[in-house]
Amino acid sequence: MSNNYLGFHFEVAPRELGSEILIAELGEKAFESFIETDTGFSAFIKKDFYTDDILDDIYLMSSSEFKISYTIEEIEQVNWNEEWEKNFEPIDVDGNCHVRAPFHPKTAAEFDIIIEPKMSFGTGHHETTHMMIQHLLENEVTDLKTLDMGCGTAILAILAEMKGARPIDAIDIDNWCYQNSVENAERNNCSGITVYEGDAQLLKGKKYDLIIANINRNILLNDMQQYVDCLNKKGTLLLSGFYTEDIPFINESCIEKGLTYVKKFERNNWVSIKYVN
User: Fold this and answer.
1) For residue 29, how far is the Cα from the chain centroid?
2) pLDDT at 89
3) Which domains does the chain have, with CATH numbers?
């Protein structure tokens, strides 16, 4: 039996949504580790578990909504912690929020967040997460009942609690994200965050002062009415996960449901917008 691995290096467009879906599909196979890259991600499988048809029934590979290509290389036995550490650099947002892995030294930043993303997205490196952090840093959230929808690593829920928001619900449909969010909340000593596995159906009958939703355009538009129904009067809705060209669709949906546009951040063609009820 070989101890070697095969590394599948995927380029995915649109990257964030496509990578999330594709990783979920590959996770049902024998792939056992994933590392996010600038253009997609790398997936690793033991050489002995590989078959020529392993990607044949992967839906996303034949979807016209995504552009996916990949290369394969054989790799000697991998030290996953070492690989992950090489690919995870700490980030700083506006000098106030430092996001790091457990093996990085603590800084003097006001908000020092420890994230171990494993297979989840939301380290702060992606433009959308970075901009949502900027919104949270700007806003007073003390004692606001908060929802982090599509929480990923729970990085935004963690920052919200550090800034005084509570109680906080964090929801993600992906089991890896659910487990990772629980772990990261504990890692940052957050006691006011409750993590749920599921989708917008869990919002029925709930009310929030602040809703954070960093997902993608289609899901945001599909679930927008449920977000608005859950938002208290004078509540704030922070949205991201879409491109500059998607702004008219998002804005039209929000305005027709009674929300008021406040401001936006743009970063490398990605957008994050703040609305109030």
Assistant:
1) 22
2) 77
3) 5-84 (3.30.70), 124-276 (3.40.50.150)
